[in-house]
Known about the structure:
Structural class: alpha+beta
Number of strands: 9
Helix content: 10-25%
Largest sheet: 9 strands, mixed
Shape: globular
Strand content: 35-45%
Number of helices: 3
Amino acid sequence: MKQIITLYIIENDGRVLLSMKKHGTGAGVWKGFRGKIPSVSDLDASGADLSENSEIPPEEIHQLSKNTGFTLEAPEKRGEIKFFYPDRDTKEVHVYSGTAEGKPRETDEMVTKWFPVDKIPYDSMLPDDEYWLPFLLSGNNFKASLYFDKQRNISKQHLEKIKSFD
Length: 166
């Protein structure tokens, strides 16, 4: 079954806001803000729109605001990344970008921090981020496919610039 995840990249004044989980899976790694969309079968049963033009579910924006202290403004779909693994289901990430109002706040689960675009800590991020994030921060919309081997190394990649998701 395909898992669909949303990823929010918050940009303001030449800076990017990243988060780091304090415990559990993904702890110690800087990344954008993620949310999970219900399983594809649940969405199909609900009649939800899975097209490229789908809007961000309001509950996702509420959760992002609650977790970060920020109100996301004018989020725009900027990318789609498909992750292919030899031993587990495909993961699809819908990447949104926008500005935000508010101040970062630390919670029991995560810390947030602004990074200048030219000082993003790629060495403390997931390996795929260095591949597509600079492309997005340069103003591009994109579709990407990343293939991983059994050791979770990227074995093949494809990045395509697209005009828009409209």
